[in-house]
């Protein structure tokens, strides 16, 4: 579907983009803020052909780059030089040879994203996007670094871009489906050439907010074998209450899995399609800006999420209180807080970790060695707390003293602990 550029006039009509970035195929969904269902861009007008190849190609006769299906066609005709597996190349970091040139793989990834976004048919694209959520199979430190570098080369600000994993996109997608589809658990089979990956969404309704998890499993040896697929389905669904199942990926083309399909359809709603992740990215992006009532009742604790609340005790108006630093459910790579506070006495304070996964809560004592001896509440500390992974916390502190009475030493301390 191509969009009329006149649709987007003024801030009220800005769009949210869910961008599924795969190493072989990519996809774009979009929506507005008015609660509408995300729509997925079709690369063929009037048809439900959503995927386009994650490929760039430079024309031989002119220095011009094209992307997607046009790139594949151009390269097949011998009229251009194609670059494939752009995400893997960017993660590897080695320069890419195109003809006699060596090019930056991150810049090529940025070019691909920018060119593919133009498929939406908008001229002032960067001004019309309020938030773009890029979803990828796994979010690790290197992938986040590469994606951040790539979008910095585009005309999009950091506030316009966010990232989430396929598992989280699945979670956001399900939260916006009819409740009966996820009263029990929801299940995804994602079958592509590289093998099968499954995702199973489970919600712990005994907690407030409700804690949601996605368990994923990989089956790299998967083939078009009905018996093999049936074993995988029985392993994942046999002893569980699965309300709905989704079959996505090119591996499910054809009718080779009829026995497995009959098993899956017993007491479950079964769907087949391939735009779940990009739509889930749209829902996730919209929830960041204006979370609806359902989103507010749930917190997703995936592998790339902070799984505990982190805070510290504070004295406010003479009464003990809790001061939140980091919130459970935040992407670990986005979790950070800077604040200033006064030490009550001595040279130490505590950080409180309150787990949402059943682990015992704990207090982490931070000792500021070699801090000058001062009166009570006469030492001001500036603290920056960040995450280095889903469970590793980094704390940096600076002595700001107390005005002219106790001059700042600007001494720096660093501490690390695990959630």
Unreliable parts? 1-11
The biggest beta sheet reads:
6 strands, mixed
Alpha-beta classification: alpha+beta
Percentage beta strand = 35-45%
H/I helix tally: 10
Helix content: 10-25%
Gyration radius over CA: 25 Å
Basic shape = globular
Name the average pLDDT: 91
**How far do the termini sit from each other?**
45 Å
Number of strands: 25
Outline the structure in words.
36% of the residues are buried. Helices cover 22% and strands 37% of the residues. Residues 1-11 have low confidence and may be disordered. With 419 residues, it is an alpha+beta fold. The radius of gyration is 25 Å and the shape is globular. It is built from ten helices and 25 strands. Helix 2 (86-92) packs antiparallel against helix 3 (105-117), helix 6 (166-175) crosses helix 9 (276-289) and helix 7 runs parallel beside helix 8. The strands form six sheets. Strands 1, 2, 3, 4, 10 and 11 form a six-stranded mixed beta sheet that branches. It has a six-stranded mixed beta sheet with strand order 16-15-12-13-14-17. A hairpin with a 2-residue loop joins strand 18 (308-316) and strand 19. It has helices at residues 68-76, 86-92, 105-117, 125-128, 141-152, 166-175, 226-237, 258-264, 276-289, 293-296; strands at 15-21, 25-31, 39-40, 52-53, 56-59, 65-67, 80-83, 96-98, 101-103, 129-136, 161-165, 185-192, 195-204, 210-219, 242-248, 269-272, 298-300, 308-316, 319-326, 336-342, 348-355, 362-367, 380-387, 392-401, 412-418.
Question: Which secondary structure elements does this structure contain, and how are they paired or packed?
Answer:
Elements: E1 15-21, E2 25-31, E3 39-40, E4 52-53, E5 56-59, E6 65-67, H1 68-76, E7 80-83, H2 86-92, E8 96-98, E9 101-103, H3 105-117, H4 125-128, E10 129-136, H5 141-152, E11 161-165, H6 166-175, E12 185-192, E13 195-204, E14 210-219, H7 226-237, E15 242-248, H8 258-264, E16 269-272, H9 276-289, H10 293-296, E17 298-300, E18 308-316, E19 319-326, E20 336-342, E21 348-355, E22 362-367, E23 380-387, E24 392-401, E25 412-418
Parallel strand pairs: 1-10, 10-11, 12-15, 14-17, 15-16
Antiparallel strand pairs: 1-2, 2-3, 2-4, 5-6, 5-7, 8-9, 12-13, 13-14, 18-19, 18-21, 20-23, 21-22, 23-24, 24-25
Helix pairs in contact: 2-3, 3-5, 6-9, 7-8
């Amino acid at each position: 579907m191509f969009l009329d550029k006149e649709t987007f006039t003024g801030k009220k009509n800005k769009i949210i983009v869910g961008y599924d970035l795969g190493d072989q195929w990519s996809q774009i969904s979009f929506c507005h803020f008015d609660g509408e269902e995300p729509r997925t861009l079709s690369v063929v007008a009037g048809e439900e052909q959503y995927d386009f190849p994650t490929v760039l190609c430079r024309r031989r006769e002119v220095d011009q780059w094209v992307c997607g299906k046009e790139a594949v066609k151009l390269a097949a005709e011998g009229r251009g030089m194609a670059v494939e597996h752009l995400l893997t190349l960017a993660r590897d970091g080695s320069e890419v040879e195109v003809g006699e040139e060596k090019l930056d793989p991150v810049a090529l990834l940025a070019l691909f994203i920018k060119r593919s976004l133009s498929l939406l048919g908008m001229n002032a694209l960067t001004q019309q996007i309020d938030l773009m959520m890029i979803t990828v199979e796994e979010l690790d430190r290197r992938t986040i670094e590469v994606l951040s570098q790539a979008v910095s080369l585009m005309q999009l600000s950091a506030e316009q871009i966010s990232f989430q994993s396929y598992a989280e996109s699945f979670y956001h997608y399900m939260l916006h489906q009819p409740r009966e589809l996820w009263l029990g658990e929801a299940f995804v089979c994602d079958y592509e050439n590289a093998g099968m990956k499954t995702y199973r969404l489970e919600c712990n309704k005994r907690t407030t907010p409700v804690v949601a998890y996605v368990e994923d499993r990989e089956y790299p040896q998967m083939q078009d074998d009905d018996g093999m697929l049936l074993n995988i389905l029985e392993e994942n669904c046999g002893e569980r209450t699965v309300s709905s199942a989704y079959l996505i990926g090119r591996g499910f083309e054809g009718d080779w899995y009829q026995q497995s399909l009959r098993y899956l359809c017993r007491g479950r709603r079964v769907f087949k399609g391939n735009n779940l992740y990009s739509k889930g990215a749209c829902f996730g992006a919209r929830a960041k800006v204006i979370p609806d009532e359902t989103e507010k009742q749930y917190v997703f604790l995936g592998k790339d999420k902070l799984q505990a609340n982190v805070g510290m005790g504070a004295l406010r108006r003479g009464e003990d209180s809790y001061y939140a630093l980091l919130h459970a459910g935040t992407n670990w790579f986005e979790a950070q807080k800077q604040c200033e506070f006064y030490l009550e006495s001595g040279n130490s304070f505590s950080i409180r970790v309150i787990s949402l996964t059943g682990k015992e809560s704990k207090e982490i004592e931070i000792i500021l060695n070699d801090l000058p001896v001062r009166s009570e509440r006469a030492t001001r500390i500036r603290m920056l707390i960040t995450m280095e992974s889903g469970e590793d916390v980094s704390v940096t502190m600076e002595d700001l003293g107390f005005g002219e009475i106790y001059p700042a030493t600007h001494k720096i301390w660093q501490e690390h602990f695990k959630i």
